TrEMBL record, chain B:
Gene encoding the protein: ureD
Molecular function GO terms recorded: nickel cation binding
Cell location: Cytoplasm
Keywords attached to this entry: Chaperone, Cytoplasm, Nickel insertion
InterPro entries: UreD
Name of this chain's protein: Urease accessory protein UreD
Listed GO CC annotations: cytoplasm
Family: Belongs to the UreD family.
Oligomeric and partner information: UreD, UreF and UreG form a complex that acts as a GTP-hydrolysis-dependent molecular chaperone, activating the urease apoprotein by helping to assemble the nickel containing metallocenter of UreC. The UreE protein probably delivers the nickel.
Pfam families in the record: UreD
Organism: Sulfitobacter aestuariivivens
């Protein structure tokens, strides 16, 4: 008689998102998920104070570059790499890569603290291992554990990143709520495109030409007065 | 710690190294591209090992021009430097000048041991301002990877594809700047340099510390002359006044 050495009780689902999966993703990326996203402006506050962002169209132009040519795309690459990773060692390397590609001290803080908060919450609610990782890496690893569709997760991640920065600008410029929502609606197709385009990217593709966005993040460290942590 | 000496040198093709006499403990190596520039299909590679306790400064004889490439041809420049414990590298090449229709993939890998020190600058000029050279159709892929003890420490990259002039004119990209430089310092006192460096920076530049021992500066300027004028005092400070003569205006 054949012996069964070990029985795996976990049932692996295919990458088909049930309605509940989609709602869980919506929960992760909702502004009420306690990662503290509202506290970070990703350097936007510097650009607003210097007069580089005055109107809704300035904001849209700035954010589309951050998404396509800067952190948005890079975070997508890191998220996908973490999703595809198969060991703790590999995830640790992706986490260190995420730290090494951060453009400034406050960008480091932004990705580390949001990542830690995400890990703490998902550990308690969904029984994940809770090891602290940078935000996109943490999201990618958690999404893999839940067997979520990575394309959808990457797209939602970008959309929440954009939504958070729009909301920061609505408060800091200030802009009207409707203007803010119009900017986010205009950025929505980009989230889909960038998530799709990063499908074949590897960690070696990490790069940024959003130079002034990165410089704005550096200069935020000495900006006075300021309301955001980055 | 004694004088640094050359152990092995092998060179071929149009990439040469010359060693000017210096009255200091460290060695200066000047890279000379006898072909006078880079074009599509060229392959340059440089491999350097700096042994325990040694100190090496590497610079270039002149700014490096990346000329128009033939369709389908891409130039490759690959540099790998390993820096052992107690050793130091000053990686101080002069500007890389991109011409319209250039095609180049460049890669710089610096592997630091736990107690290795580094000062790195990489200036890039987006077309000659005096011509003016407008970058309407380029392919430039740049990768900088610094590791320490085999772990990622600093990762930077730049992809320019197609109409770089229009791209660089955008407010979150370069707001029309014609030149850019990144400076990275890895050494125990890096954090202490942050304040004096910040005081020397123009509006279009920023400085930060990614850790107590990692200082990063990013600077944009209207053209290569303005970039150089702003960077020289900073590099003088960070190199303790040992900036190679090729760097002085």
């Amino acid at each position: 008689m054949a012996m069964v050495g070990r029985i795996r009780t976990r049932m692996w689902r295919r990458h088909m998102n049930t309605e509940q999966d989609i709602l869980t993703m919506a929960q992760w990326f909702s502004p009420s998920f306690p990662v503290g996203a509202f506290a970070y402006s990703h350097g936007l506050e510097t650009a607003i104070q210097s007069g580089a962002i005055v109107t809704a169209s300035d904001l849209q132009c700035w954010l589309s570059d951050v998404l396509i040519h800067g952190s948005g795309r890079n975070d997508c690459i890191l998220l996908r790499a973490a999703y595809a990773s198969t060991s703790d060692t590999e995830r640790a390397l992706i986490h260190e890569t995420a730290l090494a590609v951060a453009a400034s001290a406050e960008r480091l803080l932004e990705t580390q603290l949001q990542g830690a908060a995400f890990c703490d919450t998902t550990a308690k609610v969904w029984d994940m291992d809770g090891q602290h990782l940078c935000y996109p890496v943490a999201v990618g690893a958690a999404a893999a554990q839940m067997q979520f569709d990575v394309d959808l997760v990457a797209m939602l991640y970008l959309h929440s990143f954009a939504g958070n920065l729009v909301s920061a600008a609505v408060r800091a410029v200030p802009l009207g709520q409707t203007d803010g929502q119009s900017v986010l609606a205009a950025l929505t197709p980009l989230c889909d495109q960038i998530a799709g385009a990063s499908r074949l990217a590897s960690l070696d593709d990490l790069n940024s030409t959003a130079f002034l966005s990165d410089i704005a993040a550096m200069k935020h460290e000495t900006l006075q007065p300021r309301i955001f942590r980055s | 710690m004694g004088r640094t000496r050359l152990r092995t040198l092998r060179q071929s093709g149009s990439l040469k190294l010359v060693f000017p006499k210096r009255h200091t403990q460290d060695v200066e190596a000047v890279l000379v591209n006898t072909a006078g520039g880079i074009t599509g299909g060229d392959r340059f590679s440089l491999d350097v090992d700096i042994r325990t306790g040694a100190a090496l400064t590497i610079t270039t004889q002149a700014a490096e021009r990346v000329y128009r490439a033939q369709p389908g041809e891409v130039g490759h420049v690959t540099t790998r430097v390993s820096v052992a414990d107690g050793a130091s590298l000053n990686w101080l090449p002069q500007e890389l000048i991109l011409f319209d229709r250039c095609a180049l993939r460049r890669r710089l890998e610096i592997e630091l041991a736990a107690t290795a020190r580094l000062l790195m600058v990489e200036p890039v000029v987006f077309g000659r301002a005096t011509m003016p050279e407008i970058l309407r159709d380029v392919m430039f892929q740049d990768r900088i990877r610094i590791t320490r003890g085999g772990r990622p420490l600093y990762i930077d990259g730049m992809d320019l594809q197609g109409d770089a002039a229009t791209h660089l004119a955008r407010p979150a990209i370069a707001d029309g700047a014609g030149a850019m430089a990144s400076i990275v310092v890895v050494r125990p006192d890096a954090e202490r340099q942050l304040k004096p460096v910040r005081a020397m920076l123009p509006q279009t530049a920023g400085a930060t510390t990614l850790a107590d021992d990692i200082l990063v500066i990013r600077q944009l300027a209207p053209d290569s002359f303005a970039l150089r004028r702003n960077m020289i005092p900073i590099l003088e400070l960070l190199s303790n006044g040992t900036l190679p003569t090729s760097w002085r205006l």
